[in-house]
């Protein structure tokens, strides 16, 4: 339950702190005093979106912090699912910076809004002023049935099966569409692959062939130039090598006379050796150059094939062609295995559907089993709240599979004797909606085992004895849950274990909303004013005191 609430720098609230009673807490105050602002702040603890415009002082950050006592509510698994440390004392904090950046923490661990919503929904439920209208929504009615039947685990299991079924069906449909496309392209892809496969391409052959063709096309001239170079180097009559040899001999003779010239001789001798190696290589290169017109034609044909394939496939090199060939082979293998893959995918989809339908049928059966019990409980409580002639029929009809199962639920209602029940949204008045929602919250409270429930003017459209009975219901709920009720009715206000008053303080330059816990005398005064206006008579004060004493006994 909510043990402490701190709100700083939010809307009209500069700083507000309260420690609600474990039982029934009443909050009253004039319209516009700030009660809804408090709910907005609490909503931020439940993961609602933040807005920098909500800062009371734009130069300071906003902080909303709620301390919750969780002992006895078996919520540890929910924290484990979010990878959060569990403690019987949980602190949820929400901060909004002056720049509008929002941060959320659970026990000082940063969390995202989705995680905050999941944890918050297990700690606290807020019924706002307009939520009663939701009762006319068929999806909400289905949630009511599921909550009463305690179907949370069944629904979760079904939804997992439903997701698997949708994914398997989608995969099968996608494969069918892909099969049609691939089969249309199969013949052409096979032709392209065969063409590339027959080419027997090698990664570096284009460069090698281009070099070879260049040599073959210029073989005569190349041999002439190589022969000339060799002749100049190693002509027996008058060659560079012969001249260098003579120079080396001359330097050798000079070195015998003056040893200092031996270094020059060695350099010439080294050059002579190097040029002899060069001459030998030129001679070998010359011998390797063939004048082979037939080979040139073969190389040209091979290169023409490569160039054609490169252009055809818009590739820049053979490596890309080899990649295209591998991709084509993969596509062809897929087509060749399509029938097996389609059979397998269809079988998977059928099995997933069977599992989904089995889960859905279990869920549907449990829903149908509880409808009569829900009808009976709601009608009994409605009779207590002044609708003794109400009739209610919960219709469960089969639909196509959805994320919620195979069922559509409709609450058919009539508040008057002899009137055929119709869908709630067509026949229920505002007061009837309020009482119906109160009854449903009442009978579902223990099913959901929520620590804290907040009612924001759920009493709209009711008054008198009916309001008193609604207050009694809230007090009964407070035996197992912490209840916080915002109300304008003295009959409900007198039922509380604790009473808080929200008001505007205009004493400073800027109006602020504040809250205070009323003493017994202050509470009598507030309820008396709710009954008789700002200046209640002594009789009204006595009546207010008696009402408080009566409701607490």
Describe the 3D structure.
α17 (520-532) crosses α18 (538-551). The chain is elongated. A 6-stranded antiparallel beta sheet has the order 2-1-4-5-6-7, with helices on one face. Helices cover 57% and strands 17% of the residues. The model has no long low-confidence stretch (mean pLDDT 88). It is of the alpha/beta class. It has helices at 35-45, 76-81, 113-123, 138-149, 152-199, 205-217, 219-234, 240-257, 262-288, 293-312, 318-336, 338-384, 424-427, 430-448, 464-477, 490-493, 520-532, 538-551; strands spanning 2-10, 13-18, 24-28, 62-69, 89-96, 102-106, 109-111, 124-127, 391-402, 405-414, 422-423, 452-456, 482-486, 498-505, 512-517. The longest helix is centred in the N-terminal third of the chain and has 48 residues, at 152-199. It has a domain at 181-337.
């Amino acid at each position: 339950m909510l043990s402490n609430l701190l709100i700083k720098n939010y809307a009209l609230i500069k700083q507000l702190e309260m420690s609600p009673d474990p039982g029934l807490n009443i909050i009253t105050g004039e319209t516009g005093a700030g009660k809804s602002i408090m709910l907005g702040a609490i909503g931020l603890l439940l993961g609602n979106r933040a807005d920098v415009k909500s800062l009371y002082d734009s130069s300071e950050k906003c902080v909303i912090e709620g301390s919750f006592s969780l002992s006895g509510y078996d919520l540890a698994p929910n924290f484990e699912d979010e990878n959060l440390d569990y403690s019987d004392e949980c602190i949820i904090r929400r901060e909004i910076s002056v720049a509008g950046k929002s941060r959320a923490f659970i026990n000082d661990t940063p969390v995202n809004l989705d995680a905050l919503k999941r944890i918050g929904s297990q700690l606290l439920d807020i019924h706002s002023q307009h939520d009663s209208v939701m009762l006319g929504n068929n999806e909400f009615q289905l949630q009511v049935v599921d909550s009463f039947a305690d179907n949370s685990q069944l629904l979760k299991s079904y939804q997992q099966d439903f997701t698997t079924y949708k994914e398997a069906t989608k995969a099968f449909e996608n494969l069918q569409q892909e099969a049609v496309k691939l089969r249309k392209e199969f013949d052409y892809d096979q032709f392209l692959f065969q063409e590339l496969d027959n080419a027997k391409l090698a990664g570096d052959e284009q460069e090698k062939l281009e070099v070879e063709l260049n040599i073959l096309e210029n073989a005569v001239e190349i041999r002439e130039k190589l022969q000339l170079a060799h002749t100049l180097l190693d002509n027996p009559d008058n060659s560079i090598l012969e001249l260098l040899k003579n120079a080396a001999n001359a330097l050798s003779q000079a070195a015998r006379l003056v040893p200092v010239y031996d270094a020059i001789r060695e350099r010439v001798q080294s050059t002579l050796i190097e040029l002899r190696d060069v001459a030998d290589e030129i001679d070998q290169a010359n011998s390797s150059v063939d004048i082979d017109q037939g080979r040139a034609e073969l190389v040209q044909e091979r290169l023409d094939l490569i160039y054609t394939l490169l252009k055809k496939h818009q590739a820049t090199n053979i490596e890309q062609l080899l990649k295209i060939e591998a991709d084509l082979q993969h596509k062809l293998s897929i087509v060749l295995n399509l029938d097996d893959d389609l059979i397998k995918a269809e079988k998977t989809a059928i099995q997933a559907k069977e599992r989904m339908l089995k889960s859905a049928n279990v869920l549907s059966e449990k829903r149908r089993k509880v409808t009569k019990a829900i009808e009976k409980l709601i009608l009994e409580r409605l009779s207590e709240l002044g609708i003794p002639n109400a009739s209610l029929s919960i219709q469960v009809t089969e639909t196509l599979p959805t994320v919620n199962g195979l069922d559509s639920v409709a609450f058919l209602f009539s508040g008057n004797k002899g009137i055929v029940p119709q869908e709630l949204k067509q026949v229920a008045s505002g007061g009837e909606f309020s009482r119906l929602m109160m009854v449903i919250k009442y009978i579902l409270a223990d099913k959901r085992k929520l620590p804290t429930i907040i009612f924001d003017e759920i009493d709209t459209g009711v008054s008198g004895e009916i309001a008193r009975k609604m207050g009694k219901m809230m007090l009964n709920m407070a035996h197992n849950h912490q209840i916080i009720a915002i109300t304008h009715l003295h009959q409900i206000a007198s039922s509380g274990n604790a009473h808080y008053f929200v008001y505007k303080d205009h004493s400073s330059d800027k109006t602020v909303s504040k809250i205070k816990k009323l003493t017994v005398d202050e509470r009598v005064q507030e309820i008396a004013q709710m009954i008789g206006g700002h200046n209640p008579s002594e009789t009204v004060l006595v009546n207010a005191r008696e009402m408080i004493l009566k409701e607490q006994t």
